[in-house]
Predict the 3D structure of the following.
Amino acid sequence: MRALLLVDIQNDFSPTGALPVPDGDQVVSVANNILDRFDLVVATQDWHPPDHKSFAVHHDRNPGEIIMLNGIEQILWPVHCVQGSTGAEFIAGLNRKKTAKVFQKGLDREVDSYSGFFDNNHRHDTGLGDYLKEQGVDKVCIAGLALDFCVKFTALDAAALGFKTKVVVDATRAVNINKGDGERAIAEMQAVGVEIVMSEDV
Ligand code: VGL
Ligand code: ZN
């Protein structure tokens, strides 16, 4: 059984959103084109309370600065993907007809959650891993935003949980806060056995 994970394809990560990913909206058509090749499609949704502590404004800091938050490093972000806001909605062009389930993450104001599986401190489990295993999934392909954050951490956790993991790289885009972050993310994923593929090859 093979699943496609659509990571955070939300308005706030499109080029006009609150946390713009360059060309982030371009992943929509690529993702739509491959949906039918999978047994199961699930989505993750970044879903923060308005007072989430990853938001720079709550610390009187600027986005991009790094702080310690409850013992772990936290990059500060603009306010984004606030629960119930338009920015948190999936980008309108995304075909959701095949999406069996949505896993929300980032709900705890005290800890960020880049991976679709676990919070950044690895304490809270979203249930995605158990769900996939219950469905008989052994292979996952990952598409969405952003390559150097949520896609990367979702892929690293998927591989660690024993799924054969591929990232559909043309169905992702990087934030690239620092030049080369996208390439470094690819190298980190490959180092743990994640395969980087093009959509035509999945
Ligand atoms: C993301 C930063 C903050 C992502 C989410 O989806 O990659 N990045 N929240
Ligand atoms: Zn977020």
